[in-house]
Amino acid sequence: xxxxxxxxxxxxxxxxxxxxxxxxxxxxxxxxxxxxxxxxxxxxxxxxxxxxxxxxxxxxxxxxxxxxxxxxxxxxxxxxxxxxxxxxxxxxxxxxxxxxxxxxxxxxxxxxxxxxxxxxxxxxxxxxxxxxxxxxxxxxxxxxxxxxxxxxxxxxxxxxxxxxxxxxxxxxxxxxxxxxxxxxxxxxxxxxxxxxxxxxxxxxxxxxxxxxxxxxxxxxxxxxxxxxxxxxxxxxxxxxxxxxxxxxxxxxxxxxxxxxxxxxxxxxxxxxxxxxxxxxxxxxxxxxxxxxxxxxxxxxxxxxxxxxxxxxxxxxxxxxxxxxxxxxxxxxxxxxxxxxxxxxxxxxxxxxxxxxxxxxxxxxxxxxxxxxxxxxxxxxxxxxxxxxxxxxxxxxxxxxxxxxxxxx
Amino acid sequence: xxxxxxxxxxxxxxxxxxxxxxxxxxxxxxxxxxxxxxxxxxxxxxxxxxxxxxxxxxxxxxxxxxxxxxxxxxxxxxxxxxxxxxxxxxxxxxxxxxxxxxxxxxxxxxxxxxxxxxxxxxxxxxxxxxxxxxxxxxxxxxxxxxxxxxxxxxxxxxxxxxxxxxxxxxxxxxxxxxxxxxxxxxxxxxxxxxxxxxxxxxxxxxxxxxxxxxxxxxxxxxxxxxxxxxxxxxxxxxxxxxxxxxxxxxxxxxxxxxxxxxxxxxxxxxxxx
Lengths: 408, 273
What we know:
By secondary structure, chain A is an alpha/beta fold. Chain A has 15 helices and 14 strands. Chain B has 273 residues and is of the alpha/beta class.
């Protein structure tokens, strides 16, 4: 508004020169307002549009600075001005038009056109969506019900503590039918270390089916029996989509192609990447490249988790950080990777007991719980059975203790 | 850097523009900063016409200077201080978040940045009854945790529901989408579109580094340019519309490539809270 006022004032002063054509009123093109278009959408600075840097440098050198100026110029003029071919100019204009159109479409829509939702709606969504149970009730408790959808959960631990076991358990658990409290979804398992054992998954799946059968017998409801007809070992195994990636390029490519796969298989509710650290830890000369790739990967994964409403599980290795006087075990891949996961679970040993610590979570407290791994899979620690010989502590020296003979 | 176009101001005709372009003057800045006598000779244009055009362009495009006293009066009347809901944080910030300013939160993973953001959003939305826009790029926004924080402040369900309704959440996971979201916010605010009861007073971005970090490193300086774009957008939003902006970042040593200096950002420890 200030500019308009100033302009008219200057026009008035310039009337001394009659040969100039001074039009009454603003017929000149106001640089900040184009009526009838997306308005401010067109004012997007060139720096914020996804163009190649060389192209952008040429555009800026030619004097263009906003999207609107570019769109006013046709492709032929553009190619002449900045010295690129006609096809490139056309492509560039298409990209820019797409960006501005999507902005305008969003703005022209309903008032919540920023594709936002209120916190209340999100709360309702969260409460309606389920969790992927781990079959270890204390672990489910500290996680707030189980592994959450639309978030990345990272499981770190020393070798042998049970990370792959947990991944396999979750890949089976996500398929539990809804009437038993599961999600009835499918699972994608991306393996980089080669530690996926089908026989073990078969054991875990059989135990899970038996567990559900016991529940069905106890409750005797119709839909339980119907669900059990489709929930069998074969169906569980056939709904785990397994990918094997041998190095980081394959892993990156697989994650890049995952959205297409997921749009075809819309029932997938879990993506497990077993061994995100392995391909990035050896033979990587350029550490800044590694950080860049990992950050990009994290953003792609959270975007997939959010768009397709699924849970992403990553397993990570541990490394030793050597301090001044002592060394500690910390998760591998550096500090910047620590920001990638929304929820971080660290599995570790304490004498002979396996413990799980919730290290980072936006909604739950930090706590540690014990768990154990049985032939049936991931389970709670069973309280030890009451001692069979309570008098055994006070040994009667005259009585020879009964020892069971080893059966050959 | 506005390009010279026919009709940009009276007296600037298309032929003039062609002649100017031929001698390398394409934008308003080029014309204003060039020596008009030389240009008149090279392009065989009338010197008087060029001077007139320059005068008009200067008046049209230069920034309006403002007196310090006027600035102070304006700030006194338009700036507001939003309390964060946490007394010690308020003391640290000199009584709270100032509208028109950008406050950056930094910290190591797990230090509590998302929790601080959530509690500030809950406090502004419930106690001050202002609208909040929360841009989430890490997936750390958990509505149930926000509900817990609001429940600590009030027992009544209606108030809780209202407080939650005043917080808008946008999920963006890459830099271009974030820039687009900020542009849209700007558009909404400048058109004064009333979205559910009032303009946004607080903008929380959690986190800025998640979208910017994948671009750093390598030989391209793209990442820095986009980061500066983002910074500029945030500052403009804060300044023009009187928002308080809170972006969060991570504690990492940034090597800005060709400049050869290691820039270390200090981390915010959780002890102040």
